[in-house]
Design goal:
The structure is a homohexamer of 193-residue chains. The first copy, chain A, has 193 residues and is mainly α. Chain A folds into two domains: 44 residues, Single alpha-helices involved in coiled-coils or other helix-helix interfaces (Up-down Bundle); 119 residues, AhpD-like (Up-down Bundle). Chain A is built from ten helices and no strands. In chain A, helix 4 runs antiparallel to helix 5 and helix 4 runs parallel beside helix 6. Chain A is globular, with a radius of gyration of 17 Å. Chain A starts with 18 loop residues before the first helix and ends in an 8-residue tail after the last helix. At the A-B interface, helix 3 and helix 9 of A face helix 3 and helix 9 of B. Chains A, B, C, D, E, F: InterPro entries: AhpD-like, AhpD_core, CMD-like, Uncharacterised_peroxidase-rel.
Chain lengths: 193, 193, 193, 193, 193, 193
């Protein structure tokens, strides 16, 4: 794992990690071709590593939101919070899942400029409001999500993903996690479909 | 479980919940004398319930921070985020763990007014900064924590608790979770030690 | 009077105060069972003490707003300004006048979560806007108050109470006034009516 | 009195006012050559009129701060709060008391640009901080005032004037009080001393 | 040229300036009766002087907006940015072009209080929003300008003037440019039309 | 020129443009291999086009700042202002001039995370402060730039570039200018030096 995965805490050796962490990290490394630095960074504290990735997995696995919708929320929230790690790493995931080489740069800058349907604008309106001024989020905001066509449980999930990345952004910023160089370019080639 | 535990999503029946949720909820109910509404609220989605409480348990169980230090961070962060549920429920926990009937009201209002040692002022300076302006948190903030006497891993934990309650506050505010009436008064009687 | 009534200026002895201050303070002490610290704190400067309480008395005595409506404005404004003294002392008064043990904690955190009629939501919308962004308060805000059923003079009074507690909060925060311990628990027992 | 003294409440007739208001207003009119609109505006509610001007008089009469120091605080606070009435009316008073035709325009814009001694910069640093972020005002701010040469009671007075104009600005903005045309030009001629 | 035209960079001698600068400055001095300090300040760097005044001239010369409309935008933007130089210098120009001795003080304080038609309120709504929160400016804001009666090109010009004075304010504040004393009083005498 | 170069005003045909615009645009197109959309967008109004690019050219041509230093300021300012066009277009220029494929993504997110020398941190501290809170920029900020090794004229230039892009960002956001697709990927390949 990259010693420079984060700057404010030491990055452990893969060999010193508990079995379950090592297995998952090897699996991710296999899949991506490199070890995403968030796996290396959180490994500083295995109990937090497990909690973090279990929560993450619940959010992306147990939902009827499309994966690219989840990543849209993440990148819009991270853009507003100014999180370098999440902008770049989830920007790459968004380009891949949405098959759109431009969308991530739009959401990092200002989701209002993005080339997305009205339904997703509404989704990001609420995600960003919950990030910036949670005190003002009201029943009317949830109603807008329902009116846009999201199911009740999807409304919950939109709130949950937005909330989780308010944790995630802060941990990445607190520890100064650094995105792998690969993330900067992944998914930038144009798609044909 | 209280139907009014949260206002924007339906609260499930205890009997309809998976075994593992039911057991833990019954245990908590036994201990507290009532079911804290956050357990009822998150049960709307069992996969998130598990992820949320596992993360919470990792934060309070696997740390050398004292439990009242953890609750101080939680209440200061929740005060800044204006989270009604967390102010009141964790305010009660703080009164109990710190054996201090006044501290929670101080932290909800303005942690700078609290009757706490310099070390804890520094801890809350960083927790609140990570909450309000994470983009400005720097190595010098972490150094202040080390200089105040916190170990490297405790510094991580302070960041982790602060980050997690930026998730927790947002979920409680998004779902409009309501603190149990009991929390408003718990731990308000003066202590003798 | 409590030496710890405020932290940044000396608290005078009751015996050294002018006759009119002493009489009123003894009267208040009689009524409450203790001397509210704001009376002790402002006594540092008798001319300001008189001006402050005369203004306060005009606001609560010469109005057709109910006293619990006045206290609702005070606690919502103080919550937004993060004033420890006023949150706690007027929180107690609100619990007593509104005969509601929960309302103060709701308003301190976020008035939007409070269990109150629409009319009072509108009242607090304007009080909080006048506190946070007075530059944006317009004729339309006053019209909303009139539409909610407040008389012209009550509209004035809502503005006046909100404005006065923007003074009061700042003096309490500047001098670091400390709420009496009694205020933390007063009015927290449930009501039957 | 000018019907256009304020825009959101009716301005009463001088003849309909209680004796004590009428006398003072006539006195002020005599002195200034016109009736300052704040006297007309507050007369809407005589009990508040009395409370407001008594408080104001205590602030300017019972202090060892120079009158132009008091007006400097008022204009800097009003500039930050964007209060049209107070910028203009107290801008005129400041020009007269400070015998400086430029200072008011400097303080309305940005007190940091003003041609004033370091002692007054410190005074306005605290006045503006208490206006914008009272939650952050600490003992160190009061110490800076003491170090700059202000007596303990003057420190109190600086806090008191700043706080009072956070009331005053809000009432003027709420009622949309309009400065008399005379105030725009008073004291703009250069001085010789 | 006034040595005190700006405080943070040296003001060059008129005689040392390139021919084209000198000619224009002499022309302006002729017209105004004094050399406006912005001409002296920008002369520190002739290439920027030319760029700045060419841009300025394009904005005021190639537009169907009335000159007093242009100056209204400038003063409202400068008021929000708290720019001492622009408040005072363009305040004077606005008084002259609008033949209104009060309007500049209204716009410096809070454009919402100004005695102007609805069309100009809308114009300033957009100018101030583009200044304070450009990230939120949307197609609907431009539509409001069109609905208010501005032509497509005038909409562009409103955006352009607002944007340019976000440059201009910052340069004046960075260099601490000082308005000429004459600007404080120009145009303050009442008009008869 | 791309019809989609901006969304809120029509993009003119190259053939309809005045000679001087056409020549420069053909030159730029030659050099870049495509017409950067800002040239197409500003061509809506030729007088503004000329003013804008003349100012831009003065900033990058008449300075002893390195071109990559200029682009660092631009990208940091644009990141803070959330300008999609400038983030992406100047991000590409920065990658090319700095021969650094990662720096632009760092500056867009949070310049404090960037891998740059202390001197450039100081430069961006001031550029971002002048962008976000110009009212607070003081002589001490300019002194920090001098202490970091910038000449007096370079200090001016840092202020000037920061100010100009507060104009540029706002025009791009007002007109909804869209970065050419090429900008998203330019300069992302690693360098060898």
């Amino acid at each position: 794992m990259d010693d420079d995965a984060m700057r404010r805490f030491p990055v452990p050796d893969l060999d010193d990690l508990p079995e379950d962490l090592r297995e998952r990290i090897e699996e991710e490394t296999e899949r991506a071709g490199f070890t995403p630095n968030v796996f290396a960074g959180f490994a500083y504290k295995p109990s937090h590593w497990r909690a973090f990735f279990d929560y993450h997995d619940a959010l992306v696995d147990d939902t009827t939101l499309e994966r690219h919708e989840v990543e849209m929320i993440i990148v819009a929230v991270s853009g507003v919070n100014h999180c370098y790690y999440c902008n770049v790493a989830h920007g790459a995931l968004l380009r891949i899942y949405a098959k759109d080489p431009l969308l991530a740069d739009q959401l990092v800058a200002n989701y209002r400029t993005a080339d997305i349907p009205e339904k997703h604008k509404t989704m990001l309106d609420v995600a960003v409001k919950l990030t910036e001024t949670p005190v003002e989020v009201g029943e009317d905001d949830l109603q807008k999500l329902r009116d846009a066509g999201f199911s009740e449980e999807e409304v919950w999930d939109i709130g949950a993903v937005s909330s989780f990345f308010n944790l995630s952004n802060r941990m990445a910023m607190f520890a100064d996690m650094r995105p792998n160089e690969e993330f900067h370019t992944l998914g930038r080639e144009p798609h044909d479909d």
